[in-house]
Amino acid sequence: MNTSTGRSANFIDRLYAFFDSPRRQTLLLVVIVAVMALAPLVMGRYMTTIMTNALLYVVLALGLNIVVGYAGLLDLGYAAFFAVGAYSIGILTVQFDWNFWLAIPPALVAACLAGVIIGGPTLRLRSDYLAIVTLGFGEIVRFGARNLEITGRATGLSNIPEPNFFGYVISSYVDFYYIFLLLAVAAVIASHRLYHSRLGRAWLYVRHDEDAAEAMGINRVRVKLAAYVTGSVFGAFGGIFFAANLGAISPESFSFEQSVLVLMAVILGGMGKIPGVILGAFIIILGPELLRDLGELRLLLFAVVMLLIMLLRPSGIWPERRH
Amino acid sequence: MPALETFLQAIVNGLVLGSFYALIALGYTMIFGVIKLLNFAHGDVYMVGAFVGFGALSLVSGVFGAGWTGLFIAILISMVAVGFLGVIIQRVAYQPMLSAPRLSILITALAVSLVLQNGALSLTDGKYTAFRTDLGFGGFEFGRLFISHQAIVLVATAAVLMIALEFFVSRTMYGRAMRAVSIDKDMCRLLGINVNRVVAITFLIGSALAAAAGTMAGAYYGSIWYFMGFLIGLKAFTAAVIGGIGSITGAMLGGLILGMLESFGTQIPWIGSEWKDVFTFAILILVLVFKPTGLLGKSEVERM
């Protein structure tokens, strides 16, 4: 048994190595996007909706990947950014009758502010304490949403208007599938550019050795804050279109579980590695769906499978190789 | 004097709440102290403890009744069974991960939490289970101040367990080994300490304490369900952090402080019970920002 698992791991490793070259990766990505773009033609409504959800998770997971995978800051309250985006849009369009597109910039500003607010105090902290502060912030945002008048308390906000794009009302499930596909592709490109940017390298140094990075002239505070703010913008974009898609939001959509699921997508797939994170997002969303026939047991089985994946590949399915 | 009674009632409620938090926080703190793992599944171990206690009570109630004796035996059974469950979790899920990246083991802990939660969900259909005892709703009344029998026994049991733990850690051989392992695992291994066994004992005790808290919570609140461990687990963790994670006295102190703060927090007019949980997390963040090592914690530099 030992030898057979060893050989299969080897095979998997070789497969990864094959796709590690940038050109093959780009080609693969183009093929995948083309397939995804044509997919709604054959997929039914149910499958398309699930894929839309998976694409939303790709955006969220790539955003969290910047915070956790690139900068090495464990964030257990990522759903807070997602919530800030969704609620900003909800409040501005429902309570103040703003136009959807005009409401996007303030929503992004709000998310950046949230990033600075969460990032500010956490910069002093390291690892586990940091995780817990972000968790606390996430819960505060959710409890706040549940108890404030402007966020509609526990019932949340409904009747969020469907976005109107130069006269075309974006409303059908296929429309939203394409919007999220667009967002996901944009998130992949942005992630890739950031990874190879000066800031991306600064994140890498800070993650590996904060003190050494600082000694080399990297402004630790600014770099970490940049990670939070960038991550929050990704999350807010997800939240904005999530709210527009569903037309209604409630505090329970932004629970700790949501943060955990996104984090799982990142870590399961392989922190810091874009294809890994995308894979993780799809596993997190499609896994429980594929097991739907099992009824109540599906989440249990899913959790067991996840445990096994972590035990067999502790660094994720498709881990980062740059050291 | 109603104001005084309100004040005393808040203290009583705070003590009860604090005892729960403290018992669970102890498990968090011990496990963190020994293997530097935030065991996110700990709140769910507490939940499993409540269900095992419930099952044990219905088993033994035929012989011992569902009164104090029955409940006491149920707590013991639950502590033993769930203690071993803790050891199994550690062996299966955490032991192989000790050399893996820090984040991976954290995710494993979250996965274990999901397994326990969804296991309980499948077994109970997600319904609230009534936890019936024959203890009734009696208690002592002083004007408008009410102290139930359950509250007294609960706080007393918690105190006894904590004193026993303190004795175990400071006086016995394994307690000493536990403290040594928490300082330097490799050195302990070189000196011939069976580190794996010490870690297993830590999980045994931590989980048993959570199981005791869970069973008592069932008897106190009268109902249990599969999701009861989540929020209380977070709060117990908060308690452990306030006291200084890794410190056993700190966990007890943190639990009591958090219980009192919450109990008094709900008395403040403009906070009210709706904002109770926000209050908890706000305190957590303030403590971490101004004193990241907690009240009794030692300063240490820890990396991911």
Strand order of the largest sheet of chain B: 1-4
Gyration radius of chain B (Cα, Å) is 19 Å
Secondary structure: number of strands of chain B: 4
Helix-strand makeup class of chain B: mainly alpha
* Helical amount of chain B: over 70%
Structural class of chain A: mainly alpha
What spatial order of strands do you see in the largest sheet of chain A?
Answer: 1-2
* Overall outline of chain A: globular
Number of helices of chain A: 13
Quaternary structure classification:
heterodimer
Distance between the amino and carboxyl termini of chain B: 53 Å
Total number of helices of chain B: 11
Strand content of chain B: under 5%
Average pLDDT for all residues of chain A? 85
Give an overview of the whole structure.
The complex is a heterodimer of chains A (323) and B (304). Chain A is an all-alpha fold and 323 residues long. Chain A has a domain at 45-256. Helices cover 74% and strands 1% of the residues of chain A. Chain A contains 13 helices and two strands; from the N terminus they run H-H-H-H-H-H-E-E-H-H-H-H-H-H-H. Chain A has a two-stranded antiparallel sheet with strand order 1-2. In chain A, helix 4 runs antiparallel to helix 5, helix 4 (79-95) packs parallel to helix 6 and helix 4 (79-95) packs across helix 10. In chain B, the strands form two sheets. In chain B, strands 1-4 form a two-stranded antiparallel ribbon. A two-stranded antiparallel sheet of chain B has the order 2-3. In chain B, a hairpin with a 2-residue loop joins strand 2 (139-142) and strand 3 (145-148). Chains A and B meet through helix 6, helix 11 and helix 13 of A and helix 4, helix 9 and helix 11 of B. Chain A: It holds the Pfam family BPD_transp_2. Chain A: It is a multi-pass membrane protein. Chain A: This is Branched-chain amino acid ABC transporter permease.
